[in-house]
């Protein structure tokens, strides 16, 4: 049952990633693309967590934590660059 | 550890339910990201994704470790603590960048800020307030009493 639920959940999150990719490619403003990238990072964290449950490994939580960290820092850096025109002033 | 069969069934149902709830919220958030017309509306969907969606996945992982592996390991909670802390910050940064980029060409003009500069910019008044607090905490330096508040602020705004 857990295997089927994991596969269904992974399919739904993959569909969500495709929708994010649509917004990333089409977004009329760069901020839309930043938002799509941030959402993609969150969804990849979700996929890694589902993989941890599906394959019964505890290694995936560190991977998920690292992806969340890098996604947050990249979002803040992109927004900072769009606002100030520079990262480290 | 010999668990009875019904306990394992309950565990399977709980893990599957939490995982499907998380996946549903993730999909709904991405549909909102595609379908809503404006960026300020689109910002709502992914915020729900990152709290409730990833929250459902983390609950599923914790329950899976509790029922089917060697006891519960709570270091999955690190992920959700980190995401709960960073999601409002990134949403705030995205909204601030959007306000900063679209100033002057929005449909409805923004309300006045009451400051000499516009929205989403810094004029140093926050730093001024921090300086004021520090001086007050030290017990009142003579320089702080000699210069009244408005004069210092006007000087600073004029010098920038």
TrEMBL record, chain A:
Intracellular or extracellular location(s): Cell membrane
Coiled-coil region(s): none
UniProt entry keywords in alphabetical sequence: Antiport, Cell membrane, Ion transport, Membrane, Transmembrane, Transmembrane helix, Transport
Membrane topology, as annotated: Multi-pass membrane protein
UniProt entry tagged with the keyword Ribonucleoprotein: no
GO cellular component: plasma membrane
Pfam families (alphabetical): MrpF_PhaF (PF04066)
Record keyword Ion transport present: yes
Domain of life of the native organism: Bacteria
PANTHER family reported in the protein's UniProt record: NA(+)/H(+) ANTIPORTER SUBUNIT F1, NA(+)_H(+) ANTIPORTER SUBUNIT F
The family this protein is said to belong to: Belongs to the CPA3 antiporters (TC 2.A.63) subunit F family.
This protein's name: Multisubunit potassium/proton antiporter, PhaF subunit
Organism: Arboricoccus pini
UniProtKB/TrEMBL annotation, chain B:
Bilayer-spanning residue ranges: 6-28, 49-68, 74-95
Pfam families in the record: PhaG_MnhG_YufB
GO molecular-function terms, A-Z: sodium:proton antiporter activity
Keywords (A to Z) from UniProt: Membrane, Transmembrane, Transmembrane helix
NCBIfam families documented for this protein: CPA3_mnhG_phaG, PRK12674.1-5
UniProt-listed PANTHER family: ANTIPORTER SUBUNIT MNHG2-RELATED
Protein name: Multisubunit potassium/proton antiporter, PhaG subunit
Species this chain originates from: Arboricoccus pini
